[in-house]
Structure to design on (194 residues):
């Protein structure tokens, strides 16, 4: 899309979809179009349907979570601090993209979504394996388990916010505390605290 107006309209539609779907994933496309300030016909000029919007949002999400890892590695030298930055920033990102939590359990989920997430998992796996090589990860923790825990603590934070709206917890910090104790050796945590 070379025309800036086209790109702007597309971005407005995607932003509207995030705003609407984080509250109600079952909301119809006419609601997304209204939130974006465009007609349903205009929405369909950019996206052929719900799945194409979802695919664009997953691409956007994967790009942003990958960027979280890059930022973490640029901001911090200690790998535990890098992981802390990644976990906390991903939690904040997931607050907007919470409708992705259960996407793979839904019937008719586009297969291409799994491929997009596989790209992120490959990046996360490489980062995790570098931590293992440095002896920072508990020997009993394999990548598959660490990845499932990562997803699990993110989902737990979302469920907490959903069910206990009046809580006064710093969820990003609580999520980090649980995750760090689950995967890092005590020595790695002590080094990072220094």
């Amino acid at each position: 899309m070379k025309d800036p107006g086209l790109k702007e309209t597309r971005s407005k539609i995607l932003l509207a979809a995030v705003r609407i779907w984080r509250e109600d994933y079952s909301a119809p496309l006419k609601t997304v179009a209204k939130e974006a300030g465009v007609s349903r016909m205009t929405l369909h000029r950019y996206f052929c349907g719900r799945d194409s919007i979802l695919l664009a949002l997953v691409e956007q999400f994967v790009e942003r979570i990958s960027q979280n890892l890059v930022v973490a590695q640029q901001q911090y030298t200690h790998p535990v601090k890098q992981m802390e930055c990644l976990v906390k920033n991903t939690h904040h990102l997931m607050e907007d993209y919470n409708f992705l939590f259960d996407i793979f359990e839904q019937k008719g989920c586009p297969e291409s979504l799994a491929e997009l997430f596989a790209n992120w998992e490959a990046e996360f796996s490489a980062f995790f394996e570098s931590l293992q090589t440095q002896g920072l990860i508990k020997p009993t923790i394999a990548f598959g388990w660490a990845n499932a825990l990562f997803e699990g603590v993110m989902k737990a934070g979302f469920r907490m916010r959903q069910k206990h709206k009046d809580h006064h917890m710093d969820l990003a910090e609580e999520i980090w505390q649980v995750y760090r104790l689950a995967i890092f050796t005590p020595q790695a945590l002590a080094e990072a605290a220094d």
Remarks:
- The CA atoms of residues 161 and 169 lie 9 Å apart.
- The domain at 50-193 is CATH 1.10.357.10 (Tetracycline Repressor; domain 2).
